[in-house]
From TrEMBL:
Chain ranges of the Nucleolar protein 10-like N-terminal domain: 2-102
Gene3D superfamilies (UniProt xref): YVTN repeat-like/Quinoprotein amine dehydrogenase
A Pfam family this chain is assigned to: Beta-prop_NOL10_N
The protein's name: Nucleolar protein 10-like N-terminal domain-containing protein
GO cellular component assignments: 90S preribosome; small-subunit processome
Biological-process GO terms, alphabetical: maturation of SSU-rRNA from tricistronic rRNA transcript (SSU-rRNA, 5.8S rRNA, LSU-rRNA)
């Protein structure tokens, strides 16, 4: 289009990490409030979903420190500031698996 588009705005006070799926283009932002917010930037400029990603692990004061999509495009790994990794299936708001790296 030859012009800059508007920035993505999240509900989190600050974003720690941003990741993009190579398969379907979904963009996920991890915030300091422990939430992951997803954007489908090819179709919409607003958020299409938001989950409390670190809440199911039990500690409410964690931040999202890493996000990575798998090659299949339907699983997302979320790393927390407490050293835990939560695996999410994109169609569910509950983690499939939680691992603690101590």
């Amino acid at each position: 289009m030859g012009r800059f588009l508007s920035s993505l705005s999240t509900q989190s006070p600050a974003s720690n990490v941003v990741s993009r799926s190579k398969l379907h283009g979904l963009v996920a932002c991890g915030g300091e409030d422990g939430a992951v917010e997803c954007f489908d930037i090819m179709r919409e400029r607003s958020s299409i979903g938001r989950i409390d990603a670190t809440g199911p692990s039990g500690d409410v004061n964690q931040e999202v420190s890493a996000i990575e999509f798998d090659d299949g495009g339907y699983l997302m790994a979320v790393g927390s500031s407490a050293g835990e990794v939560l695996i999410y299936y994109l169609r569910s708001s509950h983690p499939v698996q939680i691992k603690d790296h101590m």
